[in-house]
Write a structure and sequence with these properties.
This protein is α/β, with parallel strands linked by helices. Helices cover 51% and strands 14% of the residues. It contains 17 helices and 13 strands. It is elongated.
């Protein structure tokens, strides 16, 4: 018989085993445990039909239809499972750890799989962790006006042995109206939360965790509310770099694609820029004066960020003046300063 295991047991001890998600392709696409291979017991249409029969007729009638859909695919399940788990050891999950995962697991065991585990409460158990389990660990939040190179600094910190969560990397978005430029398609919010917790559960929660200051939305995805609240309550290390230096960095990062996307970004913030600044920014963009465009947009973003700063506990905010946007030097300076708080200007 397949052995049921908790999601905690899987994460702590069995991540080395191949993971199979037997839910429908639509369920998998919306969100899945990172690394899982989708071998659906039912197609989207089959699952919908079985569910309708269950509601309108009976559990027994639904099971009968389920067997009709499943039986012709039994050999295919084994073939696909062997591709995912050639050593014949695997972990299975469905939505709640119910009939789908157990039926699939028993089929594998009947066909000489040596070890098959089923995650208790299924994908739902992982979702509970991914949304709520951020109450432990010391957060150190890195803030700064747009164009400060915060993500680059965090990457340098990581190279120097610090624990880092790259929210913008996980979200495939840089957080501003221009944040999709040069990035891949964003995941669903559900998958973003799943990927975020996958990285979180790898951390040593007895050591500090560096994370970038973000709003609750990063492009089209949302941060888990529990993590966002903790970020707002944590120590904020706010770096101050001149607007000119930041504009140069923005030009370097955001002019890698065509001007049409830049123009779209300007239009998205046109109400806050105002008609005069919007018109000026678009005209300068047309003339390839990217530096002046960056300066104009920073006027808006600096005001927006400053407004958000006013909502924080001032005792937790520490200003750090930096000369330029050199990520390596800035990472070293911030890490040195955090150990000598007398050098940090505390509000």
């Amino acid at each position: 018989m397949p052995i049921d295991i908790s999601i905690e047991n899987y994460l702590e001890e069995l991540q080395h085993l191949p993971l199979i998600d037997v839910r429908t392709p639509a369920e998998y696409e919306k969100g899945h445990i990172p690394g899982a291979v989708n071998i659906p017991l039912f197609s989207n249409e089959e699952r919908a039909h079985v569910g309708t029969v269950y509601k309108q007729e009976s559990k027994e009638a639904a099971m009968e239809f389920g067997y009709k859909y499943v039986n012709p695919k039994l050999n295919a399940y084994i073939e696909e499972s062997l591709k995912a788990a050639p050593d014949k050891k695997t972990v299975i999950y469905c939505w709640r750890g119910g009939m789908r995962s157990h039926a699939f697991a028993e089929h594998l065991e009947d066909n000489n799989f040596r070890r098959v585990n089923v995650i208790e409460h299924g994908y739902k158990a992982y979702r509970k962790l991914a949304v709520n389990n951020y109450d432990k660990g010391e957060l150190r939040v890195l803030g700064g006006y747009t164009g400060s190179g915060k993500t680059h600094i965090l990457h340098e910190m990581q190279k120097q042995g610090q624990q880092v969560i790259d929210l913008e990397g996980l979200a495939n978005h840089k957080g501003s109206a221009f944040g999709n430029i040069g990035m891949e398609t964003q995941p669903t919010t559900e998958q973003f939360e799943n990927n975020l917790y996958w990285e979180w559960q790898k951390l040593d929660l007895s050591e500090p965790i560096w994370i970038e200051d973000e709003s609750v939305n990063i492009g089209n995805v949302n941060l888990p509310v529990s993590l966002f609240r903790r970020m707002r309550e944590s120590e904020l290390y706010f770096i101050e770099i001149s607007k000119e230096a930041r504009a140069k960095l923005l030009v370097k990062e955001y002019t890698i694609e065509n001007k049409e996307k830049l123009a779209q970004g300007i239009q998205r913030i046109s109400k806050r820029l105002g008609p005069q600044n919007t018109k000026a920014a678009l005209e300068k963009l047309e003339r390839n004066n990217f530096f002046e465009v960056a300066l104009l947009t920073l006027t808006y973003y600096d005001k927006y960020y400053k407004k958000g700063m006013g909502k924080r506990n001032s005792d937790n905010v520490h200003f750090i003046n930096l000369q330029d946007t050199s990520a390596r030097e800035n990472a070293e300076q911030i890490l040195n300063l955090q150990y000598d708080r007398n050098k940090i200007d505390t509000i």
